[in-house]
Amino acid sequence: MPAKNIDLTIIGGGIAGISAAIYSHRAGLNPIIFEKNVLGGQLLYIDTVDNYPAVYPHTPGIKFVDVLNSTLQEFKVNFINESVEKVELSDNGIVIYSENDTYLSQALIIATGAKPKRLGIEGEDLLIGKGVSFCAICDGFFFKDKDVAVVGGGNSAVEEALYLSHICKKVYLIHRRDKLRALDYLQKELFSKNNVELVWNTTVEKIYGEGRVEGVVLKNLVEDKKINFSVSAVFIAIGIEPVTEIFKSIVDTDRDGYIITDEWMHTSRKLIYACGDCRRRPLRQLITAASEGAIAGLSAYKDLRGNYISQ
Amino acid sequence: MPAKNIDLTIIGGGIAGISAAIYSHRAGLNPIIFEKNVLGGQLLYIDTVDNYPAVYPHTPGIKFVDVLNSTLQEFKVNFINESVEKVELSDNGIVIYSENDTYLSQALIIATGAKPKRLGIEGEDLLIGKGVSFCAICDGFFFKDKDVAVVGGGNSAVEEALYLSHICKKVYLIHRRDKLRALDYLQKELFSKNNVELVWNTTVEKIYGEGRVEGVVLKNLVEDKKINFSVSAVFIAIGIEPVTEIFKSIVDTDRDGYIITDEWMHTSRKLIYACGDCRRRPLRQLITAASEGAIAGLSAYKDLRGNYISQ
Fold it and tell me: What is the ipTM of this complex?
């Protein structure tokens, strides 16, 4: 029997979830926000933010987290530092099973975000934390003056390579195609670096090492030949995948697992909303996640209270 | 013959247009932003902003404008302080006629925002600036310790009434229905004010006065009778309407004049985008306008340069 009745549950404490909490709380709801780690989501791994309108460029990611935390505290939003294990629908509402408790909620906003995709190759899982990393800002310093590899060809991969170029001796950027997908200005900056070598048309077949990464076996797709590079770390930046596993039986997702919503952030299920990186969306940016959280929060308010919102 | 070739024109210097400029510029385009007034748009009339995620609550609207200006300056975005009079399509691109010059642009982002709706009654136009106002923050102080009226029932009307309740002797809130559409917390605060009187089921028939507002003639819709109130000012807050007149022959709009776009901010016309308050959208907030500007800016980049953007 659920012990605690609440009007709105938000799962995920990144900028989307926090924005949803701010907006729904200000509108008069009493949301609870669940986050198993500290608040901040992917912001915790961002060095500086340059492109969030109305915040000065070059603001550290951690400063964003600080402002978001302060805002939640000022508005006295309930934050529960537990993971949600399971969500079930019942006649009385949505049942939320957290690590330590059970809640009955009238509405639910899913803001669980995304996590880095893995290559799915030999050595990858075994050597995570031992040279295999998904975050140059987190782990780059451990490989000061060493040779490292970055895998990928989008904005993230180029940003990781640029970041590492200031720390490491040599950075190999391994990409399976013959051109990058990153924004022009990032590419320009990358090509200006002397210690970055682009390895085109190449995939990673295997990461090897005894207890720590010692090298990678690569495959050149054009010449169909294998190459062996000695590196101390492999930074994987081939994109992200949504954290939506426990919701797939409840709401519609696309083939990649992203939750499908309308522009009001309604999912296929009444009173359940999704926003941020767990949602299928045109552009994955902090500013779009914040906007979607605001819309989801006010949608929940509107649907629960029946009030029309003029603006 | 157009003299100046540019890749992207942005019309409107509110947060949507500025966000579009930041994003498109960082992606490698060289946008020009047109604004006939100073930059800032409706932010110039906002007292404090409480609900923009990652900015501390209670930040003055003018501080937002300052950060946005600094960002444009840091990125050296071209700003032209002129109004755009006309936009035409040609075989070579989009022709932009500003006050003083003509430009040929490959792409266009419309971010012209919205302006307050008028009642369309006797005395209104004549007494604008003489007691008829659309902005309590701008003009409220001129009516310190006087009796004033606010017209409307949504968030804006209630916010105007609350703001004026701290300055004026008495505030009449005149609303044509028998309940407000504003958010709960705003209504609660309003009902707690001793010097605010709600005038339900009532419309304004006429605003009168010799050279300045002296009173209003009201009509009670339920009892079908007329009432005369002496007031020194009438603040009209019945919503906004999009500033889209010069674009209606070029892109599709809805019946209220809002420009219709998809979620990438594409209008019905190739290489023309719309974002912010001039666009049909679910929620009119600073944070949604900033997000839409970012999407429009990167859409233009993507369509002009053919680059895929991963995030």
Answer: 0.83
